[in-house]
Amino acid sequence: MPRPVPSSQPRLAPGCRWSTRDEQPVLLFPEGMVRLQGPAQYILELCDGHRTLEEIVATLSERYASSSEQKISEDVLSFLEALQKKRLVDY
Amino acid sequence: MIPNPLALIAEVTHRCPLHCVYCSNPLKLVSRKAELSSGEWARVFGEAAQLGVLHLHLTGGEPAARIDLESLILAGHQAGLYTNLITSGVGISAARLSRLVEAGLDHIQLSFQDSQNRLANWIAGAKAHAHKISLARAIRALPVAFTVNLVVHRQNLDHIDEMIEFTKQLEPQRVEVAHAQYYGWALKNRDALLPTGDQLEKCLRAVEKARQSLAGKMRIDSVVPDYYARYPKACMGGWGQRILLIDPSGGALPCHAAGVIPGLHFDNVREHPLGWIWTSSDAFQKFRGEGWMSGTCKNCERRFTDFGGCRCQAFLVTGNASATDPVCSLSPDHDLIKIAQSQAGREGERLSLHYRTQEP
User: Fold this and answer.
1) What percent of chain B has pLDDT above 70?
2) B219 phi and psi, to 5 degrees?
3) Has the ipTM of the complex gone over 0.90?
4) What is the DSSP string of A16-33?
5) Which residues of A are less than 8 Å from B84 in CB distance?
């Protein structure tokens, strides 16, 4: 599977969704769940299938201004790749 | 402090058009007329969500044998639960599948008995294989997570590579290489189903190879079958700790096979709220925590990791439900498992299979 490119539009994979019930966000998927917070939660909330990777990185750079855009871009790439291997994200 | 349950296993019926020899359902199956109605299930799903349950696993028997499966899924979805359907696919047409997804189905887990038509139908005691393949195609076209469940045992492990290769054409996101678990019908057929040590090693290698070559396409999940593991499985994440099971007639069980343990009374959701059953019923209290443990477990540092293994398996193999699960290499009864292993695949054995059958 190739790495995501700037024009990729990452989204949650089929069968992977946010719980609509709890106040604290819980990501539900086949045979599992994970309670997310901080940047991980924020990145995944931006993965709506419309925003491009480029736009997501730009949004994150505004929010986390103390990190370089390149560092953010690398972190997002490896995060999305890891979740794609678990079949939680498509891009 | 008793934790909240996270998952509810709903055995919505014991009826099933298949007769799989590895079925882990109890030998004494619940009849149709004793089954909970869809209204009763809907109430149970609501109570489960209130208790903190996140995942609902609809299983059986074959859940699609119920004509109201659509409304069961809708009720689970409306209660805010993540709905997973564990099915043989029989009784689900492409049109019905669309209705199930429309009702809020999140994940479908479709079982396969083999890669080869003849062998698959032999293990299932029914002609189901071809339908499963065409249903897989329909699933891929819909927005629902798709897992293929390959059930493996001595009769098919010799061609595990071929079976994993076969799953590629079905294009699931996830494959579970599920070793038969020796309860119910599977225990009755254990002599024919328990793999040999060689088969198991070959299987581990095949799974590892496939994980690498299919990374990013298909996720492959598999665990070492407990008869060959050094330590037991953390059955149900601990008795009364994370999971509860409701049988077709509303009996609440802490483990699939708990019905075999003598002297346990299972309270029914028709008579008690689910919250009371979870926190206070005798069956859920019986093996909660570590008070019941034998010396082997009580003094073991793994007691919070695997909780002494499975109570039902301990009873089925040793006759004592409080014993250390005999699959544990530290169990004083472990030789019973070694004997079963050494009998697997003896030369010149005569194969006799007991198919799962239900009294009308």
Assistant:
1) 99
2) -90, 135
3) no
4) -EE-SS-SS-EEEETTEE
5) 30-31
